[in-house]
Amino acid sequence: MGIKERKERHKEDLKAKILEAAKKLFVKEGYEATSIRKIAAEIEFSPTTIYLYYKDKTDIAYALHQEGFSLLRERLSALIYVEQPFERLKAMGRAYIQFALDHPDFYELMFIMKEPMEYLQAHHPEEDWPEGERVFDGLIQTVEACQKAGYFVDMNTAEVAMLSWSVVHGLCSLHITSHFKHIAEKCSSYALPEHEALLESIFQTYIRLLDGLK
Amino acid sequence: MGIKERKERHKEDLKAKILEAAKKLFVKEGYEATSIRKIAAEIEFSPTTIYLYYKDKTDIAYALHQEGFSLLRERLSALIYVEQPFERLKAMGRAYIQFALDHPDFYELMFIMKEPMEYLQAHHPEEDWPEGERVFDGLIQTVEACQKAGYFVDMNTAEVAMLSWSVVHGLCSLHITSHFKHIAEKCSSYALPEHEALLESIFQTYIRLLDGLK
DNA sequence: TGCATATATTAACAGTGTTAATTAATTTTG
DNA sequence: CAAAATTAATTAACACTGTTAATATATGCA
């Protein structure tokens, strides 16, 4: 039954091509502007064909969401070579910020928009969010290692991990939504770095707070 | 010319009624689901009448955005009675979190969505964001007072303020976008508090880090 | 070759924000 | 007071959106 297999392969191909087209449009024009009809035009199929491969638009959003997480995981897992756990934690924070700066659209989809997470809750209430968990697991393990090295003593590991995440996410999302931009302009008397360097600098301030601990 | 004034007043009234209707729908069903046509039906006018009072939909979003900021400012300015600056800073953080929990829709509009800030940038590039700045000014002043009391020494005031903001915003936004929910479920071994108590608990963890400084 | 199945398409529905043209009401002016 | 001008509100329309049902087309199997 080689024919059947070829059809299967074609089907997989088309599904991938849809996602590829969606990603292209989405990176260029954002999620809202990426319509089913535009995706269809991109791959030269009729709009309804998309629905043979993806349940609805949020299904596509979720697929991209997953892609984003494997991109992020790649970057973070590259840091296992940093042996000192606290140094690794800091490096993870910087890598996370850099990811957000390099892929603001993906970041928005992964962490700012509600749609993909709500889709997850509605359609996969069981297994929930394997990609995200793997990333978070890495963070948990690093925090645990930090605790063994004398940092964050007597603190809940998961809570420290969530706090670390909150700090960098707060920085990245306030940057992406251009909240920082507006505020920074009015803080000329404080000699703040500009744009992306500001994020790095605030993160450094956070690190200095943590350094004061041990 | 009392008639002219009455008409002016009527015009102001209708503008306010539109905003009121928009707020009602927006709080109940969210921003996307709040269409111009629904707002119009709510006040029993035709959809195009809205455009005589607001430039476009983002103009309405921005008006609500501003309302949200005066709500937040009310809460934060109620904390000036807390004399110890570091205590006040902590209280501001808790009040900010409570605001996000009490008004998640407003919070989303104010800090998560891009539309109102982009509208601001596009239509009022000069004066930029008076409501937001006043809130941030209060934070800056509190941080400054903390520094005079020996906290955050040798650190950039504005950066410490932005960091403080990032921490609570990170917490609130990851909560609202239900990212924490999915992660927390998989962290049963860490005995985490549930839902909103989790935010308070993580914030407490942050406070413990800061407490270790002075 | 004929039938069944999977695949893709067209047509359509119910919405969306927004603008132009038109009508109704009100105020100002001759 | 009546006519003209201004203002306010409406209807109709455009160009979209996501999505579904009904229809056509091509393919694999007996």
TrEMBL record, chains A, B:
Residues 35-54 bind DNA. Keywords: DNA-binding, Transcription, Transcription regulation. The keyword Repeat does not apply. The keyword DNA repair does not apply. Residues 12-72 form the HTH tetR-type domain. InterPro entries: Homeodomain-like_sf, HTH-type_TetR-like_transc_reg, HTH_TetR, MT1864/Rv1816-like_C, Tet_transcr_reg_TetR-rel_C_sf. GO terms for molecular function: DNA-binding transcription factor activity; transcription cis-regulatory region binding. This is Transcriptional regulator, TetR family. It comes from Parapedobacter koreensis.
